[in-house]
Structures are given as structure tokens and as C-alpha cells.
Design goal:
The protein is α/β, with parallel strands linked by helices. The protein folds into three domains: 115 residues, Immunoglobulin-like, CATH 2.60.40; 230 residues, Zn-dependent exopeptidases (Aminopeptidase, 3-Layer(aba) Sandwich), CATH 3.40.630.40; 45 residues, LysM domain (Membrane-bound Lytic Murein Transglycosylase D, Chain A). The protein is built from twelve helices and 17 strands. Strands 11-10-12-15-13-14 form a six-stranded mixed sheet, sandwiched between helices. The chain has a five-stranded mixed sheet with strand order 5-1-2-9-8, with no helix packed on it. The N terminus is likely disordered. The protein binds zinc ion (ZN). The site of zinc ion has 9 residues, from helix 5. Zinc ion (ZN) binds next to helix 5.
Length: 455
């Protein structure tokens, strides 16, 4: 082994590769140094479990599944366990798996995942990217529930006075810790707490419903974050971050929107820094397939997308300004205006989207504040209040907010009857009875009657 290593080092790179190619051509295994498995991590998502193996070199592997009991077996070729490899941590109580164990098998190392249900495995390798070396990722998917053969023929209720849906996205997660602060502070943890608190605040507001894009410590790829928002019919998407900068003195919150394609303004140092941190998420978090960057390519689609983008960007700015105004009351701002940047997660041309940097986790005093429950609640309330202000001023059609904004107040005059008032306003009398919680048709002079528009 040692001899081979010395020999490789002496050989020129080209010659080394030639030797490797030749030996594989002649089916000689090159006498390579054994790989070392240094760590195992597990992240549980609602629909899958991600097992990550850290190795010193690219891992060659085979895998198979067994039933009765359910197991997934991964054989790592020419691999030995590192001295610090621990299994105990990963056998904590998990929903889908009972535990993970490992054993040496000749030159190879076998990993056995003991599953609670039949899981399908999808392994893939990730190249080194700071802070990780070579990773072998094994995604385990739960069996998909079979849809009933006959779909329920119930007609969908017409959306009327529906809630405004706000998708709250906690940045990073799972393999991607996000920015790191002093004393092992991780952005992914801080922003998940702030996101959950923001969702709570939004759910308290009448006419609003929050949807959390990430609910725990697992990674969701950038493209899927907005896809989930769209699937949930979100009226607005808010991505929450707490990033780092190379100068720890930098502090304060900021709000960002999608930057227009044609904008060739020079990016600031900070902007480049933040965008890079956010956009390399997929590589650190681990996405197993190539990412399609431009989905909207045909000319007609492009025109539609561009015109909607202008509207969406204008309204994203208005929403962002409202959030910023409210955040100013609870924290200092890094930027007093909404800024445009090429954040990949703000990729939907059809959903009002903002990215909120709640502060800099790289600033020691701000990191401390970001970890405090009281400060998290203040931030969450400010974000929710800003969203509330924007949405009440610009209610999407057929929502409760729109109905409330457009309803009229009518004061009953002598001689008025309910049916007459209803006729005059072109609404059914029953709608007035319902809206005003009347027990009969009797009304009195001077009484205020709410008249919903489009009832
Ligand atoms: Zn971030």
C-alpha cells in the first residue's frame, strides 16, 4: 500500500491516469489506498430520509434492499471505518428507520440500514464542497400511497372569501447549515425557529394562512421550495435567512427581491457574498440531479413570463417595503431600501417573493439576539405585520381580505326593507341576512347593514 502511494506521488499526473486507464482496461484493480468512512449523518424529511456518508475519497459502492426485516445494504468498496466513526448518534428515535450499523467485510465496509417500512433507496455521490469532503448520499423514500382508482367526483368548492396563503421558507436545512456564527450557531436552526414563529403570527391574523416550506432539519432544493409554494397556491413566498459576512462588524436586517434579467449594475461586495451563500445551497444541501436553470424558454412563454415578472417584481417591492418598515421598529436595518439581487430561490415569475435577511449571524451581538426567543418573536411579528399591511392594501381576488375591503356599509332609512336594500345593491337578501347575522328580515332605522360585493 505504502509503496503504491509513493509510486503515485512520484509519477506525473498524466502518467498516473494513463496507468489507471490501462489497468482498468485490462481489468487490473489499481493498487489504490483504502477509502476511509469518517462520518454518518441522518436527516428526516416528511417524505424521505437522507443518510449521508462522509468519506475521504470518492466512494465506489453497490447496494441492495432486503425484506423481512426491511434492510438497505450498502457495500463500500475498499473502505475501512475511521477512528471517530460513531453509529450511536444516528440510532436516535427516527420515524422511518430503526438504526444504522456497519461491519467490515474483507476489504469492504458494509452499512446496513434497518428500516421500519419498505424504503426505496436512491444513492448518489457529491463532490467536495466546503465544509464537506466526498459524500455518498442515500435518499430513502417511503412507499408512495396508491391513489384511489376512482377519484372523488365532488366538484371543487368555488373559492370565495378564501384565506390569503403565505409560504414561509426557512433557508438551508439538513446537510446545508447555512451561515455559521460564533459558538456553533447555525443559520438553518435560527431561521427555522423564526420561520415557525412567523407562521404562527400569520395564522393569528384573520383571513391569512401560513404554509411552512421546511418544517424540520432537512434540505429542500431551491427549485422545490417555490414549487411547494405554488402547489399550496401561495399568494406570497417569503424566504427567511440570517447570513454571514467576512467582516463580523457588519449587522442589520435587509429585504431582497428578484433582480431583473437586464440589470447590469455592478453588484456590491456584500450582495455577491450573500447571493453566493444562498445560491450554493443546492450543492451543499445535496441535490442528486442537474438543476435546470431556465425553464421558460419558448418565445411566447417568455413574453408572458416577462410581463408577469414586472407586475410581480413591483408588488414584491411593495410587500418588501412594508416588511422593512415593520422590521425597522424591532431591529436595526442594514439597508433602508428593498434591494434587488439574483437569489435563485426567488425564481417564480408568478408569485410575489421576498427574501428577508433577519440579521448577520457572523456579528457576535446580533447572533446572540437572533438566538433569543423574545427577539425571534419580535422579528416574526414584524414580518407578519408587514405582510398583513401589504395584503390588506392589495388583497388578491376572491379572498376574505378582498371581500372585506370592498364591502359597503349602508345605514337603514325609514321605509327600507331588507329585500329592497338587497335588490338595490344586486345581492341576494340571504347574503345580507348571513353577513349581518340577522335572525329575521326585520331591520330598524339607523341600523348599519354590511353589503358584501359580489355576494
Ligand atoms: Zn442564508
Amino acid at each position: 500500500m505504502l509503496g503504491a502511494r509513493t509510486e503515485n506521488n512520484v509519477m506525473s499526473t498524466t502518467l498516473f491516469y494513463q496507468v489507471v486507464v490501462l489497468s482498468s482496461l485490462f481489468l487490473f484493480a489499481p493498487n489504490v489506498r483504502a477509502n476511509v468512512l469518517d462520518g454518518i449523518r441522518v436527516h428526516e424529511a416528511p417524505d424521505s430520509i437522507r443518510v449521508v456518508l462522509d468519506a475521504r475519497q470518492e466512494t465506489q459502492y453497490t447496494y441492495f434492499a432486503l425484506d423481512n426485516p426491511y434492510r438497505i445494504v450498502i457495500d463500500l468498496k475498499n473502505t475501512r471505518p475511521g477512528r471517530k466513526l460513531v453509529f450511536s448518534k444516528v440510532s436516535e428515535v427516527l420515524t422511518g428507520i430503526k438504526g444504522i450499523r456497519g461491519a467490515e467485510r474483507g476489504k469492504d465496509y458494509r452499512i446496513v440500514i434497518d428500516a421500519k417500512v419498505s424504503l426505496s433507496a436512491k444513492p448518489f455521490k457529491l463532490r467536495p464542497i466546503n465544509p464537506y469532503g466526498h459524500r455518498l448520499v442515500v435518499d430513502l423514500f417511503y412507499p408512495t400511497k396508491k391513489k384511489p382508482a376512482v377519484a372523488a367526483a365532488k366538484p371543487r368548492p368555488k373559492a370565495k372569501n378564501r384565506d390569503v396563503v403565505i409560504a414561509i421558507d426557512a433557508g438551508h436545512g439538513g446537510e446545508d447549515p447555512g451561515a455559521l456564527g460564533p459558538r456553533k450557531a447555525q443559520e438553518k436552526k435560527v431561521v427555522l425557529r423564526i420561520a415557525k414563529r412567523t407562521a404562527d403570527q400569520i395564522n393569528r391574523m384573520k383571513g391569512f394562512k401560513a404554509v411552512l416550506i421546511r418544517k424540520g432539519d432537512y434540505y429542500v432544493k431551491l427549485e422545490d421550495r417555490t414549487k411547494l409554494a405554488a402547489q399550496n397556491k401561495a399568494d406570497m413566498f417569503v424566504s427567511i435567512h440570517a447570513d454571514a459576512f467576512k467582516q463580523s462588524s457588519v449587522s442589520g436586517a435587509s429585504v431582497w427581491i428578484r433582480r431583473s434579467e437586464g440589470d447590469d449594475r455592478q453588484e456590491s461586495d456584500l450582495e455577491r457574498f450573500l447571493v453566493r451563500q444562498a445560491n450554493q445551497s443546492d450543492m451543499i444541501g445535496g441535490v442528486g440531479e442537474t438543476i435546470k436553470l431556465s425553464k421558460y424558454t419558448t418565445p411566447v412563454q417568455k413574453i408572458i413570463v416577462e410581463s408577469s415578472t414586472i407586475f410581480v417584481r413591483e408588488h414584491s417591492r411593495l410587500a418588501g417595503e412594508a416588511v422593512l418598515r415593520n422590521m425597522q421598529k424591532v431591529t436595526n436595518l442594514h439597508k433602508k431600501e428593498v434591494t434587488e439581487a439574483r437569489f435563485r430561490v426567488l425564481n417564480r415569475p408568478d408569485i410575489i417573493s421576498i427574501l428577508v435577511e433577519t440579521g448577520f449571524i457572523s456579528n457576535p451581538s446580533e447572533a446572540k439576539k437572533l438566538a433569543q426567543t423574545q427577539h425571534q418573536i419580535k422579528l416574526a411579528k414584524a414580518i407578519a405585520d408587514g405582510i398583513g399591511e401589504y395584503m390588506r392594501a392589495n388583497p388578491p381576488p376572491s379572498t376574505f381580505l378582498a371581500a372585506r375591503r370592498t364591502e359597503l356599509r349602508y345605514t337603514v332609512s325609514p321605509g327600507d326593507t331588507l329585500s329592497e336594500i338587497a335588490d338595490r345593491h344586486g345581492v341576494p337578501a340571504a347574503a345580507l341576512t348571513r353577513r349581518n347575522k340577522l335572525s329575521s328580515d326585520r331591520i330598524r332605522v339607523g341600523q348599519t347593514i354590511f353589503i358584501p360585493r359580489g355576494a
